[in-house]
Amino acid sequence: MKDYTFWERKNPNCQLAVAVNERMSYIYLTDPQVELSEIVNALKEDERIGFIAWKSGQTNYVVSPHSDGKLEFSPDGKYVDDYDQSWRIAGDASILNLKMTKEQRIVYQEYPDALARLHGALHSQEGRVIIVDAKPSYEFIEKHSHDHAGGGAHGSLHKVDSVVPIIVTGASELPESDRLVDLKKWILQLLGES
After folding, report:
1. Contact, 20 vs 141, CB < 8 A?
2. Phi first, then psi: what are they for 44, rounded to 5°?
3. Which 3 state secondary structure label does DSSP give 182?
4. pLDDT digits over 164-192, tens only?
5. How far apart are the C-alpha atoms of 62 and 193, rounded to whole Å?
6. N or C: which end of the chain has fewer CB within 10 A?
7. CA–CA separation, 71 and 22 (whole Å)
């Protein structure tokens, strides 16, 4: 990726702008002359990357250095996950380690609630953006970020960064699921604010 110009305060007219969040990064393609496929293909050469994702319209695309295939997904399809979210899925589901059952159910394994979380991340950004997720024990760094070698990093969709412990006493009800969005609703109910 050394052949591109990157955003800096002294160089705002660049080809790429990178936002590093330890184990996940957003890459914004600010130069219309740079092809998205060029960047994706360059990233696919790095085995430390778990997956690379981008969107076109409502469709999300995911590839990996560890697969020759591509996963495509979007909301409102025939496959349903544990949270009753429905998805249209085509291609290599193993890229996000999704298990698809005969009953058209989605079972999340390495990436909890991966489809909703990745769809939300991609569609919260304007313009041409690529999301890159590092494999466990790797993280992205740049000259203004810190290296968390030895652990303590966050940001990826992988379960090692997504599943956190919680200890609760004195509650008679449990949250709907173990997702943080459901935990928030449950805490507000306990506080009588829902």
Report:
1. yes
2. -65, -15
3. helix
4. 778 878 888 888 877 777 788 888 888 88
5. 39
6. C
7. 24
